[in-house]
Write a structure and sequence with these properties.
It contains 21 helices and 9 strands. It is mainly alpha-helical. The protein folds into 2 domains: about 1-195, Fumarase/aspartase (N-terminal domain) (Fumarase C, Chain B, domain 1), CATH 1.10.275; about 205-505, Up-down Bundle (Fumarase C, Chain A, domain 2). The strands form 4 sheets. The chain has a 3-stranded antiparallel beta sheet. The longest helix is centred in the C-terminal third of the chain and has 32 residues, at about 420-450.
């Protein structure tokens, strides 16, 4: 696969293709032309010795300090060096690739005044798998993600460090070994490289894709849990959700009906009066899973807008030959977006854990304690549910919104900040926790299905059960269950059994 960037047409799937699948990247010819036109405006300003922020002035609180013409290039290099103040664990190569792609795409839009050769070097680094070492902490998401993007920019100028294969090399050496040369920054180019929201957006966009996949898997896991708990599908009746017509709830209810259709387990107790109504974690799945779907749909639009948005300051408008200072670098849109998604993902994990709790409780499930025939000697899935509970409780803390916080920086010049990277990193952790919580539900539901044999679930859910069993065997006696959880998380990441279920249903979940 090849991804062509022009600053206007990149989509979220393209980010995954480049970050996770190493798709080749190139710059559209028309984007090269726009960058050249944008650069002419900067060159004219420098030649006319006009005073323009970011071109020949200091930065932030130092914006009123005029820089002599002979020091304009040095100013840009100093900016990159001084703003490389990140700390903490570096981003993974996958996240780093997402950040690099997003920054190259925004620069290709032609509103930053950067030379095409600088952006081409960034693209060449992507294609040759040179990944700057970018510490994950140090951005408040105000004038963009200054610290993370500065560490990225360091390698472009032959400084800093980069992963080249499995080795960490000095930036200049990493470039040289792959046949590349560093650039010498000119007026405004340092600022153009670091003023933007690409760190928070890169982290968050990848986690968004993971959440979208997990939301679909959660419907399948929930449907299997309902069936093996011998619950009713009455609450998923189309007439119920249509009189409270939230789109996500309508979609989820249909998914649950389709997934459970034809289950012999369901038919075996259809006339039973054992339960009048099921627990909320069963009965209210359309409402809870549904609002997660609606949040995903809303936030997808916001993320899609952001990845093709000009977030530099000042922005160059070559058709008018002007630079205009503004606030497009502020991370509020993404910070709020990832906070919303965090809350939604935490909800999805919480209701999944509650279904797991029902499955392991014999008073609720009418199954052996902790889903083991020889319980007592064996503890079965007792601690799996405890792990799910621990992750859900962690999510409750992480779901506290970062976007409601702010702290002044740059001598109070930047007095309202977004905390966008914090929001994105919390979202990433919540989604990771969610994957493990759903994996635990799948393991428990599959074990319950085995205990109900020879009764069989629906055709679609049998496929789910078979896929689980192809990686993890039925638990006959206690074993190290963390390995089973990890196996299910891995197959969820591939999306393989999700595709198999959707193929059986004839429509996507």
């Amino acid at each position: 696969m090849k991804v062509v960037i022009d600053g206007n047409h990149l989509n979220i799937a393209d980010i995954a293709a480049v970050a996770r699948d190493d798709a080749e990247v190139s710059i559209a010819p028309e984007a090269m032309d726009r960058m050249l036109q944008s650069r002419k405006v900067i060159d004219q300003i420098v030649e006319a010795n006009q005073t323009v922020y970011g071109v020949n002035t200091g930065f932030g609180k130092l914006a009123d300090v005029r820089i002599p013409p002979n020091q304009v290039n040095e100013l840009q290099l100093n900016l990159i060096r001084s703003h490389s103040a990140g700390v903490g664990e570096p981003y993974s190569s996958i996240v780093t690739r997402a950040i690099m792609l997003l920054r190259a795409n925004v620069l290709a839009k032609g509103n930053s005044g950067i030379r095409p050769k600088v952006v081409q070097l960034l693209v060449d680094m992507l294609n040759k798998r040179i990944h700057p070492v970018i510490p994950s902490k140090g951005s408040v998401g105000a004038s963009g993600d200054l610290a993370p993007l500065s560490h990225l920019a360091l390698v472009l100028v032959g400084e800093g460090n980069a992963y080249s294969g499995s080795s960490i090399l000095p930036g200049k050496q990493a470039l040289s070994e792959r046949g590349l040369n560093p650039v010498v920054l000119q007026a405004k180019e340092g600022l153009a490289l670091i003023n933007g929201t690409q760190a928070m957006t890169g982290v968050g966009a990848l986690s968004f894709l993971d959440l979208y996949r997990l939301a679909r898997i959660a419907d399948a896991a929930g449907a299997l849990s309902v069936d093996v708990l011998r619950g009713t599908d009455d609450a998923f009746d189309e007439r119920i959700v249509k009189v409270r017509p939230h789109g996500g709830a309508i979609t989820v209810a249909k998914n649950l009906r389709d997934l459970m259709k034809g289950s012999k387990i369901r038919e075996s107790h259809r006339q039973s009066t054992h339960k009048v109504q099921d627990n909320y974690s069963v009965r209210c799945m359309p409402q809870v899973h549904g609002i997660v779907r609606d949040t995903i749909q809303t936030c997808e639009r916001w993320i899609q807008t952001e990845i093709n948005a000009a977030t530099d300051n000042p922005l160059v408008f070559p058709e008018d030959r002007v630079l205009i200072s503004g606030g497009n670098f502020h991370g509020a849109p993404m910070s709020v977006c990832f906070d919303f998604l965090s809350i939604a993902a935490a909800q999805l994990a919480s209701i999944s854990e509650r279904r797991t709790a029902l499955l392991v409780d014999p008073s609720q499930s009418d199954l052996p304690p902790f889903l083991m025939q020889d319980s007592g000697l064996n503890s079965g899935f007792m601690l799996a549910q405890v792990t799910a509970a621990a992750l859900v409780s962690e999510n409750k803390i992480l779901a506290h919104p970062a976007s409601v916080d702010t702290i002044p920086t740059s001598a109070n010049k930047e007095d309202h900040v977004s905390m966008g990277v914090t929001s994105a990193l919390k979202f990433q952790q919540i989604v990771n926790n969610l994957a493990h919580v759903i994996a635990i539900e799948l393991l428990c539901a599959a074990q319950a299905a085995d205990l109900l044999s020879p009764l069989k679930t629906s055709e679609a859910l049998q496929i789910l059960h078979q896929r689980i069993r192809s990686y993890v065997s039925k638990m006959e006696k206690d074993r190290v269950i963390s390995e089973d959880i990890a196996s299910i998380v891995r197959i969820m990441e591939t999306g393989s059994f999700l595709r198999d279920i959707e193929s059986e249903l004839g429509h996507p979940l």
